[in-house]
C-alpha cells in the first residue's frame, strides 16, 4: 500500500470509528434489533445517518474504485466496533462480498442495474449458494450442488432449494448459483420474485445480519441470458473470486467487535472489586486480558498479511483459509475470555459482549468451518511434499 492510500484510508477509518462509537452504538438497544437482525426500517435510518456523515460504503471511492485489501482492513475493523456498524456503513456480509464480485465480473450494464444501488446503500442483496444438508446439497463442498439450470431460448430456467441464505428476506438483488451441463453458473436476479420463495427463517445464535438466514425454494425461475454473471460453467471460479476476500472481510469486521468486547471487559475488570482489590489485579483475570491483547495483535497481523497477498494479485485461497482459521479461532478465545472476566454480566444482555460471543461463534462456521479449511490446507501440504519429493527424485536420477 502506498503512502497516499495509507493516509487516505487512515482518515476514512477515523471517521468510521467516530461515527460507529458516537452514532451507532446507542442503537444497540433499539427495539428494532431482533433475532433475525435489524429491521429494514432501522437499516434505512442508520444508512441515512452514515450517508450524511460521509461514511456510507467507505471502502468504495466516489469514482467506483475499490480500496486495496490492506486499506479495506483499516476501514472495516472500526466498522465492527458495534454489531450494527457494518450494516450502518454498508460493509456487511453478504452485500460487501456481492459488491466485490459484481465489480470484478459484471458487465457495465449489470453494474449499473445491480451494483450501483448496492453501493449507494439503497438495497440489500443475497448470495444463493448453500443448500440443505438433508438433501445432500452444497455446503462446504460446492461440487455437491443440486440446484440445476438449463437454457430456454435466450433465457435460463433455475430450479432447486437453498439454505442459510443470509439476507434473502427483504433483499432486492440476488446472486443465484446453479449447475448446468457446462458446469456451475451464476445469475443476477431481481427480488422479490414469485419463483423465489422463502420457506422459513432459521433461528440461529447470531443476530446481526438484516433478513436473517432463510431456507429458500426456487421453482422455474426464469432469468434472461443477459443477467448471467460471467460465462456459463465458470461459477466455481467466480465463487473463489468472491469468497477469498469475503473470508478476510469477516475477519476484519469481527476483529473490531472483539476489540470492543475487550474494552468493555477491561473496564469491568478495572472497576469491579472482589476479595479486596480490583478484578484485574487477580492474576487469573489479568492474564486473560493480557492474552486478549496478544490474540488481537496476532489476528491483526494475520489479516494484514493476507490482505497483502490478495493485493499482490494472487487469488489467495490458501492464505485466506489460513487467515479464516487463525483469526476466527483467536477471536473466539477473546470473546470467551471477555464473557468469563465479566461473569454473570458477561452472559446477560446488559452489554454487547454476549452478542459478540454469539456472533463470533457462528463466524467459526460461516464462510467455511475451521475443519474444512484445515483439511484443504492439509491437502496442499501433501501435494507440495509430493511435488518436492518428485523433483528431488528427478535430480538424483
TrEMBL record:
InterPro entries documented for this protein: Acyl-CoA_dehydrogenase, Acyl-CoA_Oxase/DH_mid-dom, Acyl-CoA_Oxase/DH_mid-dom_sf, AcylCo_DH-like_C, AcylCo_DH/oxidase_C, AcylCoA_DH/ox_N, AcylCoA_DH/ox_N_sf, AcylCoA_DH/oxidase_NM_dom_sf
Domain annotation Acyl-CoA dehydrogenase/oxidase C-terminal: ranges: 233-381
SUPFAM superfamilies assigned: Acyl-CoA dehydrogenase C-terminal domain-like (SSF47203), Acyl-CoA dehydrogenase NM domain-like (SSF56645)
Record keyword Flavoprotein present: yes
The keyword Oxidoreductase belongs to this UniProt entry's keyword annotation: yes
Entry keywords, A to Z: FAD, Flavoprotein, Oxidoreductase
The Acyl-CoA dehydrogenase/oxidase N-terminal domain, residue ranges: 11-122
Record Gene3D superfamilies: Acyl-CoA dehydrogenase/oxidase, N-terminal domain (1.10.540.10), Butyryl-CoA Dehydrogenase, subunit A, domain 2 (2.40.110.10), Butyryl-CoA Dehydrogenase, subunit A, domain 3 (1.20.140.10)
Location of the Acyl-CoA oxidase/dehydrogenase middle domain: 127-204
PANTHER family: ACYL-COA DEHYDROGENASE FAMILY MEMBER 11, MEDIUM-CHAIN SPECIFIC ACYL-COA DEHYDROGENASE, MITOCHONDRIAL-RELATED
Assembly and oligomerization: Homodimer.
Family designation: Belongs to the acyl-CoA dehydrogenase family.
Protein name per UniProt: Acyl-CoA dehydrogenase family protein
Organism: Sphingopyxis jiangsuensis
Taxonomic lineage of the native organism: Bacteria, Pseudomonadati, Pseudomonadota, Alphaproteobacteria, Sphingomonadales
